[in-house]
Amino acid sequence: MRKALILVLLVLVVLPGWSAFAAPPQQQVQPGAPAITSYTTTATLVDRTQLAQRTARIPVSWATANRPSTANLVFEQVLPDNRVVNVELPRDNPWVASSGNGVVAPFPPGGNATQINLRVRLIDLLTQNTLAQRDLTLPIGDAPVAKPTITSFTSTSTTVSASALQNRTARIPVSWAVQNRPNTANLVFEQVLADNTAVNVELPRQNPYVASSGNGVVAPVPPGGTNPTSIKIRVRLIDLQSQTTLDQRELTINIDNTPGPTPTITTFALGATTVTSQALQARTARIPVSWAVENRPENSNLVFEQVLSDNRVVNVELPRQNPFVASSGNGVVAPIPPGGDAKQITLRVRLIDIRSSNVYATKEATVQVVDASQPAIITFSTSAQSVDRNSLTNRTARVPVTWEVINRPNTANLVFEQVLDDNSVVNVELPRDNPYVASSGTGVTSPFAPKNASTNTITLRLRLFDVANGTVYAERTLQLPITTQQTGNYIKSFTTTAASVDATGLQNRTARIPLAWEVQNRPAGTNLVFEQVLSDNRVVNVELPRQDPIVPSAGLGVVAPLAPGGNATSVKLQLRLVNLSNNATLDTKELTVPIAGGAVPTSSTGQGPQIVSFTANPNPASPGATITLSWQVTGATKVTLALKTETLEAAPPQESTALTGAAPYSIPQDATGTLTFVLTATDASNQSATQEVTVSIVGLPEATPEATAAPQPEATPEGTPAS
Prior knowledge:
Layout (H helix, E strand, L loop, with lengths): L1 H13 L20 E6 L5 E2 H6 L4 E8 L5 E8 L5 E3 L12 E6 L10 E10 L5 E12 L7 E6 L4 E3 H5 L5 E8 L5 E8 L5 E3 L12 E6 L11 E10 L5 E12 L7 E7 L3 E3 H5 L5 E8 L5 E8 L5 E3 L12 E6 L10 E10 L5 E12 L5 E6 L5 E2 H6 L4 E8 L5 E8 L5 E3 L12 E6 L11 E10 L5 E12 L7 E5 L5 E2 H6 L4 E7 L6 E8 L5 E3 L12 E6 L10 E10 L5 E12 L13 E8 L8 E9 L3 E7 L9 E3 L3 E7 L7 E9 L5 E9 L27
Parallel strand pairs: 2-8, 10-16, 18-24, 26-32, 34-40
Antiparallel strand pairs: 1-3, 3-6, 4-5, 4-7, 7-8, 9-11, 11-14, 12-13, 12-15, 15-16, 17-19, 19-22, 20-21, 20-23, 23-24, 25-27, 27-30, 28-29, 28-31, 31-32, 33-35, 35-38, 36-37, 36-39, 39-40, 41-42, 42-45, 43-44, 43-46, 46-47
């Protein structure tokens, strides 16, 4: 009886310390028993103001041992009056890992408390018993206010060209990082001029908000002053509400006063050697022109004009929607009668500054004026700038030509020849079914190597002759320089700032990889192509749609990679410098980006149709060329291939049940700009997925094994009006 009374008294004494809000004291960990082995924080104090405003957040780390499967962790705060409150932040999953890192949100402890007490408990979910617990305390104080700081502002450029500054073409890459940035702050990139005034050197962008760290490009201007030797670029962190500067950093770039490259019109060629006086009078004359410019300044444009007999100048451009003229291309001008008794017209192109109208460069060409009553070859030209000696030797050289004949007798035909260096003549036409050549058209010739290895040009000739008696009514010649095309050592750099690419983004086709590149000594008539090499060694174009198909020799851009397939753990990208006239690769560089999250599956189930890849090759391509459209889909019962266009008559959509396949498409002769193709994959339940690929159209038609030196015969006899 006495023992029972003692036991009751002990219970009455102990129970008050075990209130509903207080946890049992920590005990020594027994071997094999559930335990919380650590509970720590990197915080040294909790801010008094944040506690009062309920914005205080404390990072915590924990680890457990011998945790039962029915146990969970609970994060609490013990108040001075021994009440216990939960300090966990809302989360989707109530289950807490056995070890990890997190954040708790403490309460004001009340009274004159000088510290807070945080606790973690390991509890059995079935019985709610506490299996283990740990506490930690933090003093309450006034935390120092973190100062907004620009921690870095750097550039990979050490110099900038004086001529580039003057021409407003200078670009300087910059990188930056900011800490403790207020929500109301933004970054501003400026240049401090010689008189200590500042100008904004940011390039236009859609989003005015600048991230707290990143990479970009600024466009500096001449700094002013006498013989400046450097420019000063500055980044400022400003408060948008008060416009006060929170922090700033500067960097200095030396000015390279070595004379820069001179803007030059390297090519201005006419696609006709004659024009009829009748067409000039009727204002129906049209002359094809081609041009190329090097070292073109920013804010410049090309103007096409005619110099009349009295030295007056008139613009001969045809109406167009976009007044901006590309640095290289093909077009048509509309000349007028030159006046007086002039037997030729003079055409010219000028490269001018849009703002000041200063002329950077000028180039002229002439065309003879002829009588339309006599047979004449009024056009015989090529878009090729040169021909490769190795291709001539290997008999793989192809030269595109354009021609037009007027007043052609019914018994006449055209023949395409090459005059060799020993004055012998060889036919350079490719095999064709029909020997008749139309009076105007575009085709491809196959020239020979000169007999003398030191000869540096080839001469092509077009003759209009009488089939019955051999009489030559007219002839025209053109010459092309012979060059030896070098390969390699053009692409100086091909890099990315991406440390990895997300596997889910690759699978969903939302992945984007930023790129930077630089090409040196780039030959004329070339372009850059951005591609991805897949696991099965197929190569796909990963460029995003753009208005200008010609890629600058240096710049920044973004590509859209595909899932590489197989068990690949990285994405392989390549940059190729290609010759637009023959698609020959002059240089290649590769880079590899790891896939975050491991290999990406190439197929999926239960998600409807999935388009793994849809590509066009070659891309870019020429009018008249045949491209191959390739696809790989999963989860579909059929695929449909269609041309998305408003300017060309589209062929009926093609359907196929092949989940991996390819289809050829011949680009029309009059195609310009871009063509967009659409692939639609459909499953049995009529779910569908679509994807587009855009092909850039550049240059003249390419040669094919069955190409002819001329198109098929005209549909109507000579002289019959065309509809």
